[in-house]
Amino acid sequence: MKVGRKLEKLLIQCITENQERAYRLAYSYVRNKEDALDIVQDVIHKAFMSIENLKNTGSLKSWFFRIIVTTSLDFIRKQKKVQLMDEEKLEVVLPSSQDHYTDLDLARSLNELPDKYRILIILRFFEDMKIEEIAEVLNENLNTVKTRLYQGLQKLRVNMSEEDQEEEKR
To answer: Which of 16-25, 76-85, 112-121, 122-131 is predicted most confidently?
Structure first.
């Protein structure tokens, strides 16, 4: 039982340190505050119920974020509909958080990207995850993550330059 208690303490610490990141990651999938909060709550429950299955405590954070990703994807599949992000909700970060998605052109362009690119860009640049961590969280090959990240950035660049051209026409 001692090992279980130690794992639970490590999990509580991981949840506490990453609560805002967990929320933002869930939100980046479902784009709805209440649904994102429900997903985070569900993820915490799932994590506690399956903590004994964790083999390596060094990968606790990646394991926790992988649960967020799979739970979010499960939620989307159940909903069978994509909820559009309201522009007023673009800055929906928990009030105590430091980083806000304030650049509306960037947020709009990010929103237009396919999920497989958008999630990578959010994890890499907004959540400051290393590419290796992203590959582990998404359960993807490292080279696949690198390629998609590069492609996503290219698409983002194209979207942003098209928006700039539209602005100049006005």
So the answer is: 16-25
1-81 maps to CATH 2.120.10.80: no
Domain ranges of the chain: 1-81, 101-170
Q: Is the dihedral of CA 148, 149, 152, 157 positive or negative?
A: negative
pLDDT at position 43 is 95
CATH 3.30.70.1560 holds for 101-170? no
Q: How far is residue 98 CA from its own chain's centroid?
A: 17
Residues whose CB is less than 8 angstroms from the CB of residue 14 and which lie 6 or more positions away in sequence, other chains included: 60, 61, 64
Write down the pTM of the prediction: 0.66
pLDDT at 20: 93
For residues 163 and 52, what is the distance between their CA atoms, to the nearest angstrom?
49
